[in-house]
Amino acid sequence: MVRYNNIKVFTGNANPQLAHEITEHMGMSLSDSTVGKFSDGETSIRIGESVRGADCFVIQSTCTPVNDHMMEFLILIDALRRASARRITAVMPYYGYATQDRKSKARDPITAKLIANLIYQAGARRLLAVDLHAPQIQGFFDIPVDHLYANNLLSEYFVDRFDPKETVVVSPDVGGVLRAGLLAENLKAPLAIIDKRRPEPNMAEIMHIIGDVRGKKAIMVDDMIDTAGTITLGAQKLIEAGASEVYACCTHAVLSGPAIERLRDSVLREVLVTNTIPLAESKQLDKIKSISIAPLIADAIIHIHEDTSISKLFT
Fold first, then answer.
1. 59 class by beta-carbon count within 10 Å (0-12 exposed, 13-18 middle, 19+ buried)
2. Element (H or E) spanning 56, and its range?
3. What is the pLDDT of residue 1?
4. Sheet architecture: strand order including 288-291
């Protein structure tokens, strides 16, 4: 039975299992829609119930295949707008193209901003996202953005497993210090930083480690693991610097290219991820542990629907 008045939750094909978990946590079912393809490859959308005057939420991680899932997302939003939905909230557990958030060199696009424009033009009037690669992406939108963090979920997993005196939290680069600092604070553990240089995309060169890791269990934390070059090279450097064991955790398990082989052959003892991106069978390793982000997103959707504070979820 639906516990909330006139709320509809839809999903594309990117991560239907997560969408089902979210609505199950909310005590309701997913709304009726069919997302497929026409014979020529164009995206086909059918909304199977009235949404007139409804508070609609569209759940879609824009993960691989990114462009297909992005088009599903935009067309779903457009369909709901044209069907007279009262409000449409775009729910993006994983925001594809988020790493293209600035011009690194002349004539580079800022694709993360383009995606923001497309979502708004399609008809979304609110965004709910999880661990954006760069927090300033919120400023790309001219609509309210609710930014969720998986830090507490990751902390809960580690807090009973590690002695703070024997643990150090490690940021894989200077840009992730704030994220790592929050995890270190939750675990009451010290913080270390890896000074990283990236000579070209998807290639990292580790320079040196700032902080004491000798004899400690190191937990590396990042927002995503893509090709796993940074995380595996960093883990090796931590072992060489005297760390007894190395673990890794992230919100988004992109795991593209050689990531699985790198993780399998690495010194990492365990890699903790969330299910913002579905973990394909070919990407499942014994050392990869997945926890669900669904309760956090479900609670955020409820708060948005009831017009109550999202920040209460983190206090």
1. buried
2. strand 55-59
3. 42
4. 203-210, 191-200, 167-171, 217-225, 245-253, 270-274, 288-291
- pLDDT, tens digit, 9 for 90 and up, residues 137-183: 999 999 999 999 999 999 999 998 999 999 999 999 888 999 999 99
Residue with tokens 């929050």: 182
Instruction: Sketch out the chain's domains with CATH numbers.
Output: 7-150+294-314 (3.40.50.2020), 151-291 (3.40.50.2020)
Q: What is the mean pLDDT of residues 5-24?
A: 97
Q: Which of 297, 309, 311 is nearest to 23 (CA)?
A: 297
Nearest alpha carbon to residue 170 among 126, 109, 233:
233
d(CA 226, CA 259): 7
Q: Which of 261, 195, 200, 249 is nearest to 225 (CA)?
A: 249
Q: Where are the alpha helices (DSSP H) in 172-293?
A: 177-187, 229-240, 259-265
CA 231 to chain CA mean position, Å: 17
pTM over 0.90: yes
Tokens 């919120």 found at: 138
Annotated catalytic residues are 196
